[in-house]
Each structure stands twice: as structure tokens, then as C-alpha cells.
Amino acid sequence: MKTPEEVIEMARKNEVKMIDIKFVDTLGTWQHFSVTPRELTTEVFEEGFGFDGSSIQGWKSIEVSDMLAVPDPGTAFIDPFCSVPTLSLTCTISEPGTREAYTRDPRGVARRGEQYLQSTGIADTAFFGPEAEFFIFDDVRYDSAANHSFYSVDSEEGIWNTGREELPNLGHKIRHKGGYLPVAPTDTLQDLRTEMVLMMQHLGIEVERQHHEVASAGQAEIDYRFDTLVTTADAMMLYKYIIKNTARNHGKTATFLPKPLFGDNGSGMHTHQSLWKGDKPLFAGNEYAGLSQSALHYIGGILKHARALCAFCNPTTNSYKRLVPGYEAPVNLAYSARNRSAAVRIPTFSESPKAKRIEFRPPDPTANPYLAFTALLMAGLDGIMNKIEPGEPLDKNIYELPPEELATVPNVPSSLGEALTCLENDHDFLLKGDVFTTDLLHTFIAMKRREDDALRLHPHPHEFAMYYDA
What we know:
The chain has helices spanning 4-13, 44-47, 106-120, 190-202, 229-249, 293-313, 319-322, 369-385, 403-406, 416-425, 428-431, 438-457, 461-467, and strands at residues 18-24, 30-35, 49-52, 66-71, 77-78, 86-94, 125-137, 139-144, 149-154, 207-212, 219-224, 227-228, 253-255, 269-277, 280-281, 335-337, 344-346, 358-360.
């Protein structure tokens, strides 16, 4: 980890002309403002940079809008997407005067989650490893007004372009659900994904693999190595930043929207988790699939609170166009080894105790990683502390169960509104250790209710196709 002095030296050595101050808002979007290098002193790493928080969605009202952005020196990097040398710092938000952590700051929530974990004595460290998928398109257009609404995305890989005049059209378009791991010329994005990977590695993200994903039209996945909760969430914000800006530099656009295409696979963010105490992996044992009893109880907590967790792990109306029963989506609230039809999978690639972990498959990359990862940790800890049994594993292809048996398997919520109701009814586990607060939960739910209402109240283009002649 860098010290403040090392960050200042880093700025001097790279002849930095601007310091970019980044923080994440309630919904999981990076926000920023910039200061000149003369403002970068050792004191600001304790005292923070003052700014107006009144216009940040879900944050302070104008009469109490002064806030402090306190930079974390370990997050410093030279921003490769700025035309002049710019040093970037990620911040946690504090209250002026008291210097207390601002309770609606998602990064602060994640830090309190790590502190709560240590206070329980159960473990020292929670590791998270997200696998975020995304689409790379050549063109995107959309609009919504009182009298019209539409969207259109396009990709040279899209199966719908087999007949398009491309002067010449060279074929090799990807069929729906036919995009998993093809080589060139079908996969047209290898070099672009590699450039993203090289940039991630240059900025300190340890990448494990990259590949084309299942869907037509440029679906991709880049996986980076697991790390501690806050560090992994920080890396996810940088990961998105690199992907979007690298795509833009090549005249393309990248989106983490879970379901941009009808009738094809959506983008998820399968999230691997494990607990350690010192150098001991706590999820390894002699129970089912080589897990410990603590790991099974952690799964029990995840499954018990899964429907409420979806409010954070799948926080958009579009999320529930991916999470649909009857398709190969992780909607079934069961657990199983190797089995990707269950919401909780136990990977079995390695028998090493260090590799023992659980994977929660419903999340998607629209999630605010700080809130989603912390909520998952709190659910798992609740399972361990209350010895919540996960029930029997379901070692079957759940997608092919007969209807009467499938009806016994609980599902994730079917809409954002339902997920928010589940969170309203099941959130006490999040309040332990003051990790989340009722104020933050109420604010988050109110913001998301407005999104849900907006979609519910707007006429949909497909309704005209179905009903205009009624």
C-alpha cells in the first residue's frame, strides 16, 4: 500500500498537472472533481477535500451540503485516459467538523462491513471475486418522451446483420446463444479485450482471463483475481472505467446493462466469496463438496436473505429481464456443487483448501459493488452466527425438473419492486454493527421505487405491437 508521501512523490515524478478526486454515489456511479497539484499535501489524506454534496443523488440536502472526500493513498494511479498527466485518488466521504464517516457513502459501508467482520471474531478477512460480463456495441440509440420511446443497439457481430450491405459483408455473424469462446474471425473483439486487460494490469488489477461470452453482438467477460472486500469493490469501479473508456477510444460503446438483447443471454456478475482467519481458509472442511460447517451456514444465510439481497445485487428494472424462470438464468434459490442451475454454486476445479469458496450467481454488474458485496457478507455472517442450515443440496439440472418438483424450489424476485419489498421486510441483518443504517436503506429504497415507478408508468414500444389494434 502506498503512503501519502509516496503518492506525492508519484505525482512529482510523473509531472502531474491535475489531481482527480473520485468517489462513488449511492447507485454505484463514479463521480469526480479535480484539484491542482499544490492542493496535494500529506494533510489532505487525513483532513480531506471539501466539496458540495447537495447534488449527488440520495445525499445531503442543500442546507447541510458541505462534505469531505478523504483520499485513500492505496488507490492512486496515473489516469491513462486523460490528455494531460492526471493522478486519480478514490475517496471515502466524511462529515465536516466531526470527521465521522458519512453513513450514505457506499465505500464507508464496505469499510464498516470489514470492521464488523473482524469484531465478530469469526474471521479476519472476506475475499470477493466478481465475474462481470458486458456488451461491446458499435452503435446505441435510445429516446423516451411523452409521445415516443425506442432503443436500438448494433454490432457487426450481430446475427441480424447477415443480410446487411457492408461493402462487403464477410459473414461469420454470431448466432443467438452462439458466442461462447469462438475464435476469429467470428470473435472480432480479441484485440480490444486484450487492450483492456493490459490496461487493467498496468493499473494494478490482476487479471486471470478474458473471452467472448455466450450472446451475439459483442458480449464479453474479463475476470480479475479475488481480493478483500473494499479492494475488490475499488477494482470493480476501475474495471468499468477502463472497459468503457477503452471501448470509446476505439469508436465503440460498452454497457453493463444486464439484458440489452431480447431472446439472448444477459450479463451477470457471479460473485465468489470466502472467509479466512489469518492464513487459515475457513470454508474448507469435510462436509458436502469439501466445505466446512461454517461455509454451509454462510450459504444458509445467503439463501435465507437472497430475495432481499437482490435489491442490492440486481438493482435495476432491467435486471429482472435477465432473471426469468424457464431460461438458463440463476433464479433457483438452492445450492449445489459444480451446478450452474443453482443460485449458489460450489466450484470444484481444485481440491486445495485455499480454493474452497462459494459462488452466488444472481448478481449483475449494475450493482453498486460496495453495497452488494457488503450485503452478501452480512447475510453470510448472519448464517454463521445463527447456524442457519441451507437444507439439502439440489444436485440436479434444475432447469429440467418436472413442474411439480420445480414448484418446491424458491425463486429470486420477479421484479425490482418485489425485491425492494423483500428488503423492506428483511433487513435487520444489515443493521448489525451499524454497517448499514435505516437512513441509508430508506434512501436507497425510495430512489429505486422511483425507478420502478418510471418504467411502470411509461408506455412500452412492444405494447403497441401487441395492443394497438385492440
